[in-house]
Amino acid sequence: MVDSFRTQASLCPITKPVAHISLNFSVQDKVRITNRLMIYIAEEYLGRMGYGNTQVLAVRHNDREHPHLHLVINRIDNDGKRISDKNERLRSIKVCRELTAKYGLYLAPDKAHVKRDRLREPDKTRYEIHDAIKSSLGHCRSWDELTATLAQQGIETIFKYKGSTDIIDGVKFSKNGCTFSGSKIDTAFSFSKLDYALNANNRPEYKRNTPPQEPKLTQPQTKDDTLSISLFGELFNNGNTCDPDEEAVRRAMLRRKKKKRGFRI
Question: In what order do the strands lie in the sheet with 178-181?
Fold first, then answer.
């Protein structure tokens, strides 16, 4: 198999000719995920991702409680052409969510079920920051308090200002050399939502002895939530999570959605 992969890859030499993708299913669907269904879903995933005309090695592992499948893919197709990996992370998220819905698979409601001990960088640090913000936010009444609390846990808070003004319109958090915007950690952690939560802690009803409620966390959007969705393509040589091309595509998609909504109205 290795010799065959090498021969085909030599038709169009590139730096990383092999992709490694892991499709992970929820333990809730363990009984349903037969070998046949797993391969069927994997083939549909490969087709939608543009890997329908190349060499693929598929291996099911049983070393974890949740069903999962490893795909080793030749990025040089059977015609000797390079398969584009542009915006692969975003496309993978979209395809996985579509397949999850199509096959009625389990979709975890939040990040609570993600196994922290299995995460690698930068996901490991991103979840550490997520958990620190979540546990601290309910006890802080200002940005100064939140910033100081996070600093005690080795997390730096970085504000983004609008142009040359002193108006804050964004926030980032940094730890272990990894920096993430608040919304990349969780959609509930954008600057505006965190600011609202902090202001809410100062309302009269929060000044009694009863502890403030934690903000409701929304469904995570990023690729890196390895087990928070039932089917997920993890790209092991995908580089930095904050790829500018991917971010540009995401924003363009959001703009198109807004235009469509406006047209319907």
Answer: 156-161, 168-175, 178-181
How many helices and strands in the chain, by DSSP H and E? 8, 7
How many whole angstroms separate alpha carbon 65 and alpha carbon 110?
Answer: 19
Strand 233-235, strand 156-161: pairing: unpaired
Residue with tokens 């999962």: 68
Alpha-carbon gap, residue 128 to 136, rounded angstroms: 12
Q: Where are the beta strands (DSSP E) in the chain?
A: 18-24, 56-61, 68-74, 156-161, 168-175, 178-181, 233-235
Does residue 13 have a cis bond before it (omega within 30 degrees)? no
CA–CA separation, 50 and 79 (whole Å): 13
Q: Is 26 helix (H, G, I), strand (E, B) or coil?
A: coil
Is 213 exposed, middle or buried, given 0-12, 13-18 or 19+ CB atoms closer than 10 A?
A: exposed
The letter for the amino acid at 40 is Y
**Do 228 and 24 contact (CB within 8 A), yes or no?**
no
Return the structure tokens found at 98. 């579509």
Interval 132-164: pLDDT, tens: 999 999 889 999 999 999 999 999 999 999 888
The answer, as to whether pTM is greater than 0.70, is no
3-state secondary structure at position 76: strand
